[in-house]
Amino acid sequence: MESNNTEMKMQYILDENKNLAETPLTDMLPVEHPIKCKLISAFEVFVRVPQTENYWISNYGRGVNNHRNPNMNKFYEHKQGKCHYTIYEVWRTPEKIRGKLTGKIIVETTKRETSPEELVAKCFLKQYRGRGKVWHKNGDFDDNWYKNLIYVTGKDFINLKADKITWQELSYEQEYIEYVNNAKNQAMIAYGSISSRCKGENNSESAHKCYDDVEMC
Asked: Tens digits of per-residue pLDDT, 191-201?
C-alpha cells in the first residue's frame, strides 16, 4: 500500500480581521497579467481590470494604468479612497458581412466612469444575483481594502447609509477571490511562527513561559 507524502502547499493571506491566515495554494488564482509596481505589503496583488488592456486595480484599492506608456512598466497611480475613475474598455468582435465571418476583428474603445470600490469588488468579490451595490463594512468610504467590501442590494445600501440597519444584520455571506501573492517566503514563515507562539498556539513547554503576556502589533 502506497502512502501519499505530498504536503499540501499553503499560501499566506489576511483574514477579514487582518490576521495572518493560510489557505491552500490550489484555492488561489494566478495573476494573468502581472506588472512591476511597488507594493505596499506582501499581501497586495494587482490584477488587470476586465475588458481593459491598460488598467490594474489592487486588493487594497490602488488603481494604476500605463495607458500612455503601454509598452513600458511605467504606471500612473490614480487617486485613492472615495473618488471617481475614468477608464477605457476595449471590445473585440469578429467582423461579419451578410452574416458570414470575414476573419477580421473589429476593435472598439469605450469610455466608462467607475470608482475604485467598484473595480475592487468586480475583481476580488464573488458577485450575487440581486446584490449590485458595494458597501464598506467599517463605514469608511476611503477604505477600499477588498475584505472591507460587501455586495448588498440597492435598498440595503440606502438603509445602511441612513443608519437604519447594520451590515451584520443583513446576514449576507460574502466570498472573496484570492490571488497568489508574495507572502510565501522565509520571512513570512518566521512571522507566522512568532505569531502563533504569541497567540499561545502550538507552544512547547519550554517556550510557553517566554511568551506569556506577549503581543504582536
From this structure: 777 777 777 66
> What would the pLDDT profile of 164-192 be if each residue is shown by its tens digit?
999 999 999 999 999 999 987 666 677 77
Which residue in the block uniquely carries the three cell numbers 502563533? 196
The three-state secondary structure class of 183 is coil
User: Of 158, 156, 181, 178, which is closest to residue 169 (Cα–Cα)?
Assistant: 156
Burial of 73 (0-12, 13-18, 19+ CB in 10 A): exposed
The span from the CA of 127 to the CA of 205, in Å, is 47
Q: Is 107 or 60 the better-scoring residue by pLDDT? A: 60
Residue at grid coordinates 506569556: 212
Distance of CA 115 to the CA centre of its chain: 15
pTM comes to 0.81
> Contact 105/111 with Cβ under 8 angstroms?
no
Q: Pick the closest to residue 13 from 150, 174, 138, 184 (CA basis).
A: 184
Phi, psi of 170 (to 5 degrees): -75, -25
**CATH classification for the domain delimited by 10-184, as one of 3.90.75.20, 3.90.660.20, 2.60.40.1220, 3.30.1160.10:** 3.90.75.20
Report residue 155 as a C-alpha cell.
435598498
Query: How far is Cα 124 from Cα 129, in angstroms, rounded to an integer?
Result: 16
